[in-house]
Amino acid sequence: MESKYQVESIAEEHRHMTYWDMFATWIGANANNGTWFIGGIIAACGFWGGIRALIVASSISYVFLMLVGYMGKKTGVTTMALSRASFGIKGSVIPSIVNLTQFVGWTAVNTFIAATSVSYILHSFLGWPVYGKPGGNLGLIAGIAVMSILHLLSIIAGQRSIQIIERIGIILVIIFVIWESIVVFKDVSFSQIGHWQVPSNLKMGFGTAMDTLAAFNLAWVTAGADFTRFTKKTGTATTAPFLGANLGVFGFAFIGLSATISIAISSGVYDPNNSDPSTIANRLGLGIIAMLVIMLTSMTANAVNIQAAGSALNNMFSKLTLKQSLLITTIIATFVTFIPVFYGSFLETFTAFLDYVGMVLGPIISIMVVDYFVIAKQDYRPSELGNPKGKYWYKNGVHWTAFTLWIVGVLIYIGLQHMAFIQKYTGATFIVMIVIGLLYWGIMRLKKVE
Asked: Mind telling me which residue stretches traverse the membrane in this protein (predicted)?
């Protein structure tokens, strides 16, 4: 009798993802609207403060992407299936819920920004008011519908269509970044951008920027194995995601940061609410082609987001097929995309979402990585991940040590975030990950001694 907790492990002969495919996937994942918007948000640190935070937070985060990518390559299973080994077969529902909600959230973020671009296109052709103006919600709602239909069509077409989107998308994205850079630096010099001073009432601490970027970058880590399980070579599973994700985030966050500051210099007003790529592209006069590229970048990023959310749902309800899970998560994301329409501020909604991601995700990743590389010494048995009588069942299907430490990590994060020193210098995320990782290693070692 087949277990209801069954896990699919991709066999070596069915792994066909090349280094270029993996590299393109992770550039496409980060070369998107959300990354651009993040660049605009960290402009509140000033140009050089934002650059420093971007380099440090992204590099550390994507080391974890490499580690989880290696886990996927070695076992052939998704990240959420891997979480069963550390959290228990039933306990893995916690990482799965976190993954489902955060990737549905990221899908909604990218869809919302792309829908804003659609509203500008509709304004050009039909004269509809753009989003943000009286009556502009109509164009936004139409944009959300258009983008959601495109996402559904790509899922129905299958994995091959996603690879084609990624391959075409990466070329157009690179061209767009170069084009945007030329326009930005034509009117405002690099020296002016570098010396721009943030208004004191809007200034962001370096530690806060670190947490913002950590939440953004670590979100991809829990999708790592979902793609690297289709690879045969270690380099394809480790260096390709690391280099691709870093190149994507540096390129698009840099242009978001620079464009936001350039508009603040030329207009005399810095408003982080206007940091989204559609608004900036419109202010720079880039036209309809830019809006179409922004729509495409939404599709390339959401190909990864929807895949990860669907895998999480599939881990929770294994009777669903992966395609059914993907379709369900896309529909849920469509409804979530409407939240900022009624909430009133996309920036406030986005910031609250990042706070949630940073708080819950770090401890999960830390526990999973320590469990695989230190406790299990890279020896997971995929066949046991779905066995309710096996080693990963723990007590009633839950590994209470991991679950308890996850709660402790969330509480530590909440406490640290209110400390002025943390906000100004370090951020809470990576400190929490180190503390929880050490605690997990120490407790598990004591258990072995007993």
From this structure: 36-65, 103-126, 138-156, 168-185, 205-228, 240-265, 285-304, 325-344, 356-376, 397-416, 422-443
